[in-house]
Each structure stands twice: as structure tokens, then as C-alpha cells.
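Appendix C. Worked example: Nucleotide-sugar transporter
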Amino acid sequence: MIDRAALLGGVPMKAVSLVLLTFQNSALILIMRYSRTMPLVNGHRFFSSTSVLLNEVIKLVISAAVALYDLSSNASPNTPATSILSELVTTMFAGDSWKLAIPAALYTLQNSLQYLAVSNLDAATFQVTYQLKILTTAIFSVIMLGRVLSVKKWASLGLLTLGVAIVQLPQDTAQVTIEDSKTGEEAKIGRRALEQIGALGSFAVRSLLGSDAPAEQHLYARESKSVTPEEQNRSLGLIAVLIACAISGLAGVTFEKILKQSPPSQKPVSLWVRNCQLSFFSLFPAFFIGVCWVDGKEISKIGFFAGYNFVVWTAIMFQAGGGLLVALVIKYADNIAKNFATSISIIVSALASAYFFEFQITIVYMIGTAVVIAATFLYSQPDAPPPTKTVEYEESDIGRQSTELESARPLMMQPMRSDSTELERPASPTK
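Step 2, the predicted output written as C-alpha cells:
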């Protein structure tokens, strides 16, 4: 339930949460982008696999701390701390909670792809393109959950896709023109793009089938060694963000389906316990696949924290803390307000990219961004009820619409309500 009356220092919590989320959304993408393009730290660039693992560790610690606080608040004053901790552990692993390992693994891969994307795309383009996760979530909800979308929603999704396509046009054209004029090596550019795209596909195949190939041959090992502006490939970044959007939609809908299929007799689980579950299960693919298998050989040579500095730690903390801010928005505001914060952050990211990273804001980019923002707001609007059976339609439509909006959020953005009819789960805005 939305609490609009809460205040913090006389300021409504709705306003506080929206301002903080807008700042966090904008700053996170910019910091992640800079962390992948800044000068090397002691000759090394940090491994994205280690940052993904640390991000999940921090989320688990924060979620566990809040969950323990909630349990202690509801327990009797004389309840020992060990009993409260035991209750949390029991709740985390009760029933079929192991099924959450599936969306957790998907989101771990998504986080890795986000680092690859921001290594090859400017922050502003990434921010706009990543809104396609709304489209992928809607498509998977129709396929896997049998959800029916109105004509207006399909139109808004088409508009969203058009806006993202418009944003891509000038940068791609400009980049190819500049590269050709400087080097005249169009064939070389094409070969490099095909090699990197092939590496992405090879990594996906190896992830599914397993491989004894050396760690240096893996895409993420190559990507985490060094990414200079001259080596960035826009096509690879675009492919990475599109795959990340698809995985985001699949993971979100899978998460929703798992929870809806849970036995009705199962004890309701709080949102913070859900956070603990997902962060815990994310540790395994992040560590064994990312840190050990993909980058293990390189990490053993130069160290787990090679390439780390204040910027890298700031990016990790911003990403881990994003879920708390989204949870505040969900609690004290609404989806339209959250979309407003996201829209403002897109504009801020574009302006900051132009100032700090020499990003060119063109008319075409502004048109595409405006279309994306308009489509996002249009999709979040509830459908108008028909003239007949108004009461019955409104009740069913509100429930369906709420579920659609919740499932469109990234995984850690969705707190879980006790009745399991609406899925809200906190997490970083890039998820």
C-alpha cells in the first residue's frame, strides 16, 4: 500500500524517494561507463565478474540486515538473536525456494552483459536502449503467463521500439563515417565487429555446453583486460544491451511464474527475505562461472581486486543500493512517479554524457528519446474500462494492470507482497 503521508524532516517521502532515485539512476550509468573507460589502475582494468559478485554480496548483507530487523521487531523482547537468525535461514530455504536459482542465474548473466554494454556504448544511448526491457517483459508475459495486452499497450510497445531505433541511427552512421574517413579500413572494422559478435555467441555456447578453453579466449576475460575508446565497438555494445533486455524480461516473468505456482499453503515471505533468496542464489553463478571459470586464470595472476579504485567501489555501491531507493518509491509513490524519475534520469544522463564524455546530442537523438519517454508513460497508463460492467472490469483490470507494471520492473526492483498477487521486488535500476 502506498503511504503518501510520511515525512522526512518535513519533506514528503514521495519527493525524497523520487529525487534520490533520479540521482541514483543517472549517476550509476555514468559511473559504470567511466569505470570501464577510465585510465588503467596500476596497469589493469577491473574484472566485471568480480564487481558482479561483490554487488550480490552487498545486496545480501543489506537485505539480511533489514530482514533480521523486521523479524526482531515482530518477536518478543526476550527472543535470542540466534533464534531470529535461525528463523531467517529457515524461511529463506523453505519449500521450493530453490527454484529462484533460475531467475537469479539469469540476472547474474544480465549484470555481466550490462558491463559489456556500457564498455562499448555511451551512457545516454545505453540508458534509452535499456528501456526495451519493458517490451521483452511484456512479450514473455504473453507467452509464459498467457497475459492479454490491450491494443493501446501494444501500440505503446511499438512506439517504444521505434524510439530506440531512432536513437541508434545517428550514432551508428556518424561512427562509421568517422572511422572510414580516419582509417579507410572499412573491411577491418567489419572483421573486428564480426569477431567480437562471434566471441559473444561462443561464450553463450560455452556457458550452456561447458568447455575447457583457456580463460583468455572468453569474451569477458578479453573485455575486462582493457577497453579503450579506440577499441570500443558500438555494434557489440548494442547486441549486449539487447540480450540483457531479453534476459531481464525472461527472468522477471520466470520469477513471477515461480511465485504464482508456489503452494497456497506456503507461508508468505517478506520482500527482504525474497531479496536474500535471490542474492544468495546469485552468488553461485557469479562466483563459479564468472570469477572462477571465465576470469579465474587471470584473477589468479593479478589478483581479485586488480584495477579497483574509488570509482569502481562507488559503482558497485550505487548498484547495490539502488534496490533500497526503488523500494522507497514503490512504498511512498507509484509507477507513474517512478517512470517520471526514470525519464528525468535519461535527460540528466544525456546532458552529463555531453559534458563529461563529449557525447553529441543531435535532433534525432532528442526525438528518439522523447518517443521512448512518451511510450513508457503510455504503457503505464491503465486501460479505460468499457461502458458496461464498469465495476467488475475495473476491479479485474486494476489487478491485472498492477501485475503487468510490477513484472516490467527489473528483478531486484520488485518487493514481494504477502498475497503474491502483485510482484514488487527491489533492485538496481539497471536490472
